[in-house]
Amino acid sequence: MRTRLLYTLAMIFLLILSSGQAMADKIRVAVASNFTGTIRKIAESFEKSTGHKVILIFGSTGKHYAQIKHGAPFDAFFAADARRPKLLEKEGVALPGSRFTYAIGKVILWSPQKNYVDIEGKTLEQKEFRYLSLANPKLAPYGKAAQEILQGRGLWKGLRGRMVRGENIGQTFQFVKSGNAELGFIAYSQVKHPGESVEGSYWKIPQSLYSPIEQQAVLLRDNDTARSFLSFVKSDESLKIIRGFGYGYYGIE
């Protein structure tokens, strides 16, 4: 009798376990490089609460857009702008009504060296540096913002010979962090972490000096798990994480 009871309990346990595994799902999400640290924390919380797996693929918004157009198997796309998600929606690639703004990006001029960049960005005019890092303006919205800032100060042409361009904002950050460039235009979120002070020195650039970096996400496949993940990104828990990394507000468009 006892043996039969143990056998029955074991079978019930295996059925529950296999049922949970069957319900678990994997999704592939293309993400703009600036959102790397933030979405990793969000995905970690989502995975713990649902059992689903989120596979994150990072890169420039422009490159992701091209890959999606050519059939890359992504379930969702977190861009660093609003233009590409709108285009995908218009072109019938993204699911209508799924697009929303999840963050407003902020640009800073940063150096890992203390007291190297002043709080007004006059370091740029002084030109006491060899290399300035920025993302490719044609591929990355943060690179486009950097170009607008430099053009607004009349420095774009004069500094072109000193520019080191990253394919995306992640590579741009690495150029500065590694010392290949003394300073660079990066996303504030790359050095602003919840509860920690920013290392080095930086100029927090007024958002009036560049076009708003409205970062939007969109659903690419009609997938319940992907829908759940996008809903989770809109939750209070995720919003707290997003703000903790220095982003501005987000909302449903």
UniProtKB/TrEMBL annotation:
Molybdate binds at residues 61, 169. It comes from SAR324 cluster bacterium. Residues 1-24 form the signal peptide. Pfam families: SBP_bac_11 (PF13531). Belongs to the bacterial solute-binding protein ModA family. NCBIfam families: modA (TIGR01256). GO terms for biological process: molybdate ion transport. Gene3D superfamilies: Periplasmic binding protein-like II (3.40.190.10). Keywords: Metal-binding, Molybdenum, Signal. GO terms for molecular function: metal ion binding; molybdate ion binding; tungstate binding. This is Molybdate ABC transporter substrate-binding protein. It comes from the Bacteria. SUPFAM superfamilies: Periplasmic binding protein-like II.
